[in-house]
Amino acid sequence: MNRLFTRVCKAFAVLFCAASIATPSMAAEYKQEYKLSVVPGPTSGWAQGAFYFADLVRERTNGRVNIKVYPAGQLFAGKQTNEFMMLRQGAIDFAFGSTINWSPQIKELNLPCLPFFIGVQPQPYKAMDAILAGKAGKMMIDAVEKKGVHVIGWAENGFRELTTNKGPITKPEDLKGMKIRVVGSPLFIETFRALGANPVNMNWAESITGFQQGIVDGQENPTNGIIIPAKLWQYHKYMCDWHYLIDPLLNSVNPGVWKQFSAEDQKIITECAALSEKYSKALSRIGLDDGKAQQALKSVKERLTCDWGTAILAPAYSTYRIELGEISSYPRGYKENGGIFCHNNPWISIANAIAGNDDEAFAVYQRNCPAYVEDKSDVRKVEPYVYCQMVAGPEAATPGEGKNSWLTGTAAWTFVDVSQYLLGVRPTLDGLAIEPHLPERFDQLTVTRVFRGVTYRIAMKRTGERTVSVDGAKIGGNVVPALSDAKSVDVEVTF
Questions:
Q1: Are strands 94-98 and 34-37 parallel, antiparallel or unpaired?
Q2: Which of 208, 217, 268, 238 is nearest to 465 (CA)?
Q3: Do the beta carbons of residue 381 and residue 401 sit within 8 Å?
Q4: Other CB atoms within 10 A of residue 207 CB
Q5: How many CA atoms lie within 13 A of 222 on its CB side?
Q6: Are 313 and 304 in contact (CB under 8 A)?
Q7: What are phi and psi of 401, to 5 degrees?
Q8: Rounded CA separation 340/313 (Å)
Q9: What 3-state class would DSSP assign to 471?
Q10: Which residues contact 445 (CB under 8 A, 6 or more apart)?
Q11: Which domains does the chain have, with CATH numbers?
Q12: Average pLDDT for runs of 10 along the chain of length 495
């Protein structure tokens, strides 16, 4: 019995020692937050892809891996070419890194930046996908990993186009002497020198100020990724849509951080990276990249819009079409046959706001808002304080006549439009994004927003410069961080 007891004790002792030895490595706790770096602001397509990735990882790991996106170059003080070194050294955990910004350290990443190498192909996006999925893509990834950064996937920022304030660019001679802001990459500098321009190396964090002050005459960046979100038409009247090179992004992680994750979580993160790659490419390649979104919005205004709002289609069907069914059974200008369905008009307003058409965004809201058409109540024939389901369209026998008051979700959609896009105070996971989209006659306004128990008193003023200050301290980007240790916060915004 004593021998048995001794053996049992020895066995437990061995197991205890083994467990003691294994525990530190097996039970290594994840960090509360992993920092993901992005160069441009949160509204850019680049940043939106990063937010999508971070949200996916957080959701699919049940919060074990909490990635927080830091846009607008916050983690490297605006010096974007330092990002790779900081990621390698562990000062940054994750990054959606630009091949352009990392190319000074890794020469292989210059491949997609060869001027007109990909853009002249009959199907340039297909060509880009083939490069990234093939030997050339593997060569670039291997080069990055040899330098000490682990790559978990690709993302995309789109083809880069040229904007200027000194006239249209139709031939190389038009660039002679122009000061063009470029990334601090030798390839970019030499390209624009060869074209006769004067390239100016300027970090993106300093660029908007440079445009405002006329330090430079132009810049090059992707349309959907940067030009539209940053509203560069405020500074540059001309755009050369030349697709001269593309900007692949590397979804990357510090190797030491990567090794901390379990095999299960590494697999989940890799899967999320693949999904975010598709999302990022979709954002890059959507109509804004080739001007089709702006063209569509222009057509909506010209062909579908009247004083009473935007119709669902035009021209309306004049005869019953059996293959179309119910749509063509209605009289012209009513219901689905050319009527104005009120609930989709706020989304047209939102689309114009996102595209930077601030005047039209507000005009769409006005046409549909009962308060703005109260003087036409004899035609509208609906309570002046309520939205209706639809309004007779321009081809109807009684254009402007409202139908089925109350039977709509328009009021709810309009609230989203007004609060989050026209006034531009939009809740996000990390805080309040503030980006007003209002006509120039609105030069000053105040908004009070209660967000996660904190009252944000927001004062906005139109100055032509975009800044955000929280309790007197200027922050990078336009996202006011979510706070929990204050009852109220004063936010000052210029736009």
A1: parallel
A2: 208
A3: yes
A4: 22
A5: 29
A6: yes
A7: -80, 125
A8: 9
A9: coil
A10: 423, 436, 438, 459, 460
A11: 34-290 (3.40.190.170), 294-415 (no CATH), 428-494 (2.60.420.10)
A12: 43 39 49 95 88 94 96 84 93 96 93 90 87 94 97 94 92 94 89 95 86 93 85 89 91 97 97 92 71 82 94 92 86 93 95 88 94 90 92 94 92 95 90 90 94 94 85 83 87 91
**Rounded alpha-carbon distances, angstroms, from residue 208 to 198, 204, 415:** 18, 8, 31
**How many CB atoms within 10 Å of residue 147?**
14
User: Where do the H-state alpha helices sit in 323-422?
Assistant: 345-354, 358-368, 377-380, 410-416
User: Residue ranges of the alpha helices (H) in 120-223?
Assistant: 124-133, 135-146, 186-194, 204-213
pLDDT at 227: 87
**Residue in 440, 479, 226 with CA at minimum distance from that of residue 493:** 479
Q: Are 159 and 290 in contact (CB under 8 A)?
A: no
User: Measured in whole angstroms, how far is the alpha carbon of residue 469 from the centre of its chain?
Assistant: 21
The whole-number pLDDT of residue 324 equals: 83
Q: Residue 361 gets which letter from DSSP?
A: H
What length does the chain have?
495
Residue 163: strand pairing partners? 219, 239
Cβ neighbours, 10 Å, residue 372: 12
Q: With contact defined as beta carbons under 8 Å apart, do 183 and 113 qualify?
A: no
Tokens 């939205």 correspond to what residue? Answer: 387
- The sign of the CA dihedral 466, 471, 476, 477 is negative
Residue 155, SS3 per DSSP:
strand
Question: Which of 126, 100, 129, 122 lies closest to 113, judged by CA?
Answer: 100
